């Protein structure tokens, strides 16, 4: 079976709706078609300062959310990145094959380092994309389901795979991003031309899956729209309305055209109420399941350590080939 791999950072107490609709919603059905590897990149998380206690808790909450969303440890390999040391080992080789200028062009690095002030930004932010390339190439993944904001990192990963293959002989699979057009970028409810992100200036535009559904419903009802009255999909002139339609459509499984037709003669209040309702229906049982997984920490740790063992089986074989090709002496 072809292989799929993806990851989500444990940098918050809850995944947000953009994470879910842009990426995680694809992960679950892909378990049936692919040999699936899903992981929590805690090594990526420390590219910005993290509180140790909080990080530990957030890794567990992340795992519980993935399980609650339907990632099944019997059908996919679910693991934590730091428990598979091969990620760091391969990332060094890839870092040494990446141009300084090439890495400097990564827009996520430019944005994040600008936010911290260039002098204070950690070097880990700069080498982040090569660690991400290692994550993917170690497993020879064909498909990587992500949101639009990861496209450039995937392109770098492809370039590095091809560069290595050309220099040392065919070793890596050149992966393809799996980006679902309609939901690849979910926007901030208060600023619907910027992507929904936990680092936005205000939390009012961000829907966290684990927040109280009443709070989230309120945020939907206060979403910024426009001065017209007509409900139709147009990202350029009606970004707020289009974002709500996207969210409702993705959560309910109904097409946007179908939704729009149903809103003829109705107002933005109806659109917001219905969107808040489908969201509430989605998050209410999810929160209960997450609590259930979190209530048995020993079981969670067991699932993750079992996942790490299975991941290492694959990762260590790829790394051994890479080290041999690069000219390192065999280990042991
Ligand atoms: P992260 O943790 O920031 O986000 C997890 C996933 O959510 C997607 N996403 C969005 N999709 C649509 N609309 C949004 N507003 C939105 N915000 C976030 C992201 O595109 C991502 O798919 N570098 C990665 C983690 C990573 C990884 C990997 C992913 C590390 N190694 C290997 C794939 C393969 C990241 O920071 O995602």
From TrEMBL:
Subcellular location: Cytoplasm
Keyword Methyltransferase among record annotations: no
Annotated InterPro entries: aa-tRNA-synth_I_CS, aa-tRNA-synth_Ic, Rossmann-like_a/b/a_fold, Trp-tRNA-ligase, Trp-tRNA-ligase_bac-type, Trp-tRNA_synthetase
Short motif ('KMSKS' region): ranges: 195-199
Catalytic activity: tRNA(Trp) + L-tryptophan + ATP = L-tryptophyl-tRNA(Trp) + AMP + diphosphate + H(+)
SUPFAM superfamilies with a match to the protein in the record: Nucleotidylyl transferase (SSF52374)
Enzyme Commission number(s) of this protein: 6.1.1.2
A single GO molecular function term of this UniProt record: tryptophan-tRNA ligase activity
Keyword list, A-Z: Aminoacyl-tRNA synthetase, ATP-binding, Cytoplasm, Ligase, Nucleotide-binding, Protein biosynthesis
Annotated residues for binding of L-tryptophan: 135
Keyword Nuclease (UniProt): no
Entry binding sites for ATP: 9-11, 18-19, 147-149, 186, 195-199
PROSITE patterns found in the cross-reference section: AA_TRNA_LIGASE_I (PS00178)
Subunit description: Homodimer.
Family (UniProt): Belongs to the class-I aminoacyl-tRNA synthetase family.
Function, in words: Catalyzes the attachment of tryptophan to tRNA(Trp).
Protein name stated in the entry: Tryptophan--tRNA ligase
Lineage summary: Bacteria, Bacillati, Actinomycetota, Actinomycetes, Mycobacteriales
